[in-house]
Amino acid sequence: MSTTTSSTTSPTPPPASAAPPGRDRTTRGWLPQLLLRLHFYAGLLVGPFVLVAALTGAVYALTPSIERVVYAEQLSTDGTGVHRPLSEQVATAQAYTGGERVAAVRPAPDAGSTTRVMFAAPGLGESESRAIFVDPYTNAVRGDLTVYGTSGALPVRTWVDQLHRGLHLGEPGRLYSELAASWLWVVALAGLGLWLRRLRRTRRLREMLLPPRGRAGYRRTRDRHAAVGAWVLVGALGLSATGITWSQLAGERVTDLRAQLGWSAPALDTELSSGTAAAGAHHAGHHGDGGSGEAPRVAPVSFDAVLGAARQAGIDAGQVEVSAPAAEGSAWVVREIRAAYPTEVDTVAVDGDTLEVTDRVTFAEHPFVAKLARWGIDLHIGALFGLANQVALFVLACGIAASVVWGYAMWWRRGTTRPGRLGGRAPARGALARAPWWGLMGVAAVAVVVGLALSLVGISLLVFVLVDAGRGLLARRREARTT
User: Fold this and answer.
1) 453 and 329, same structural domain?
2) Residues 129 and 82 in one domain
3) Within a domain: residue 138?
4) Where on the phi/psi map is residue 176: left (φ > 0), alpha (ψ -120 to 50), or beta?
5) What is the pLDDT of residues 362-413, one digit of tens each?
6) Measured between alpha carbons, how far is 288 from 330 in angstroms, rounded to an integer?
7) Is 22 within the bounds of a domain?
8) Rg of the Cα trace of the chain?
9) What's the domain range around 97?
């Protein structure tokens, strides 16, 4: 009897497959679960901002081509022969405006194009100027429009640009686009981690990139979301990085960091050591009408002389801009403005009195990071490779928008199995609770660094955590009531 009792109460030996002492098997799979929750919450809460940015960006990508159609009368001419002197074209535009001060001129770059004479007219916004379009063959005025920025965007493109950048809400509106750009790379990389994990399990690369037909419901939506996300990944990361450089808060940090590391583009020195008027006053026959430090008026003939000096100094691109001195004692600036590859953006400062080049900055002198930044921005706005660049951007933006929509469809379909439920359930929580100590430290370090570098990511991440914690607290209370 005692033998029987002892045999029935003796402990059963552990199976051979049990984990060795000191190893906690509950830590397995914590990282994929964390990526899934991050991808889910960030996509759910930031998705609307990314969707709006993608759709408006898709339209903006095509605006350079749209401009050429809408403003064909202002941008083109059917004149032939030899261009009239630039001074005559400037004088014509100045007479048309009633004698306003000329700020800059963009001579017709090729046959069939018009010359832009730009004025610092009162009542315009920041980076805006009034442009008079002049036929270089006949000196006839062909248009009067407001242009924006160094790209010379015309009203249609400017309107779409402001919609894409800030929803026409001014500086506060720019926070929406910064939030989208700041989170896009996080969502994309988290999605990449989940995509690679699934690829490792299925070993079917072709199906991961080109989902087969015949699937329906949630599975089809998931496959399309994952496949399109993989195709647009590199482009999305590029748009996110370049978008951050333009952002309101993080952009300033990027600029400061580049300056500290010596990665900024060299600045042109326009200050004349002689301290003379430097407005071509001797060539113009009169001095500026403002006091010291004010932008002086210049005679039209000065543009011919200064442009000629710049051409002799090596400014040989077809697309150039000649800017009058910004203040007494400053030099003229002649810069190449061809953003297409190969990039031509060399710049010279010219003394208006002596026609000597006082400073020069060439694109070859730019640090490599500054060149990358320039190419990245030109890619972002569709200027680097012309029409091909614009079409690729349009497709990329549509792909990002489609991936967001399919992501929301996945969330919605996950909730259709429970009547009365709005949307699907969130992925299971508890990833950080099961993470090893080094995983917790790594996640905390990354969160702190990203939060400090990208303010809106840090603030919104804190909101995500609070929302998640609140949902968890409510769930536990409901469970407690039912038990």
Assistant:
1) no
2) yes
3) yes
4) alpha
5) 999 999 999 999 999 999 999 999 999 999 999 999 999 999 999 999 988 8
6) 12
7) no
8) 31
9) 72-153
